[in-house]
Amino acid sequence: MEVIPMSEGEQLGAETTSTESVRAETLLEVDGLKKYFTQDSGLFAGVSIDTDEFPPVSLGQDYVKAVDGVNFEIRRGETLGLVGESGCGKSTLGRTILRLLEPTDGSIYFKGEDLATLSGESLRKKRSEIQMIFQDPQSSLDPRMTIGQIVEEPMRAHDMLDREGREARAKMLLEKVGLDPHHYNRHPHAFSGGQRQRVNLARALSVEPDFVVCDEPVSALDVSVQAQVLNVMEDLQEEFGLTYLFIAHDLSVIRHISDRVAVMYLGNVVELADKEELFENPQHPYTKALLESIPVPDPRDRGARGVLEGEVPSPVDPPSGCRFRTRCPDLIAPDAYELGGGEWSHTRAFMRAVKRRTFEAMTAAEIREEFFGGDLPHGEAGKIVEEAIDHLATDRNGDDADDEESRWDEATDLLLESFAEQSICAHERPEYEIEPVYGTERHYAACHLYR
Ligand code: SF4
């Protein structure tokens, strides 16, 4: 399990000013949080049939490991950005923190109290201190209600103030989010997308929360409107002392709003650092690939951009060790072979090309030239590569009875089992602290390159 040491000294850094000390109070701490979903339901859930096995019917449950051992803390008054490709578990994490989803394991300490253990009235009371803003401002507002009623709804649910008090507070909040309080009796359809998200903000703030989970709150808005809503959120944070967990897939939005940034991949946090440190000195290969994928305004620069290759693996059966290893361009050489740097980078590129079948079959000499400049790695590694080439080459010596499909499969299995599966990346879950270049905040990277 991913365990990040978070002593007080590490959280604050070596030197802190008094202002930083005030902000450094931990408001929320997530420790070993997991959220698994069962994959299917119904009468035959968990029953699998394999006619090659005896007995052919077995019982067992597959779990989608949406969030799998996540640790981080959020300090009072800060914005922690949470970024990653869609499907990486960001929204599930946000909803689990709020207990909209039941955690499978782990703790969610909010002001020192573990939300994961609360239920009933005590959980309901805590919920007023934590609010959530969703992506789609259209569907999250009831079209039959006026915006006044919408903003007052959470106050009514928590028995806050009397009718006049709620109306006065709703109007005050509408003004704070940049809407005309005279529009209190209008319905959501009379407002634009950006204005509806402002109504959502006012509603979330009506019960005086300390902490707001913002799940892609500006993704559905035009870019020009996004900046306006983000600026309103920053103003509200300053005025009401709010703390945000801000979930987004868009790195430019994350860069705008965050103080620190956590990068998520396949249910794990793979890098966490101060915003400037993360954007200027990214260390995890996944973070680097995400940053290189940001669209650039000048099309002539496009050739220099990296591309995230391959599919995100299934969260039902995620890769062992480092979750990113099946797509990582920096996979570490197995210790067993004593490969030189050039030998390993050639072997790794060949293995990836075979796995993804990115080249047409050619002669053995042509494959050697194309991927190794004519010289195979020395020793045992070279013999394995030679054998893989022999499966693929058009002038191979192997059994001609094998069809092309199975020869590619054999070469792929041989290379993956001999190299990828022998790497430390496949055996140990990485967790390392890195010396930051920008500032003194801790910089965490889940990558064995820093061992
Ligand atoms: S641990 Fe290995 S596979 Fe994972 S990101 Fe680092 S180098 Fe890549």
UniProtKB/TrEMBL annotation:
Cite the ABC transporter domain residue spans from the record. Answer: 49-291
Instruction: Tell me the InterPro entries matching this sequence.
Output: AAA+_ATPase (IPR003593), ABC_transp_ATP-bind (IPR050319), ABC_transporter-like_ATP-bd (IPR003439), ABC_transporter-like_CS (IPR017871), Oligopep_ABC_C (IPR013563), P-loop_NTPase (IPR027417)
Family annotation (PROSITE patterns): ABC_TRANSPORTER_1, ABC_TRANSPORTER_2
Recorded hits in SMART domains, A to Z, give: AAA (SM00382)
In which domain of life is the source organism classified? Archaea
For the biological process aspect of GO, one term held by this record is: transmembrane transport
Family, per the entry? Belongs to the ABC transporter superfamily.
Name listed for the protein in its UniProt record: Dipeptide transport system ATP-binding protein DppF
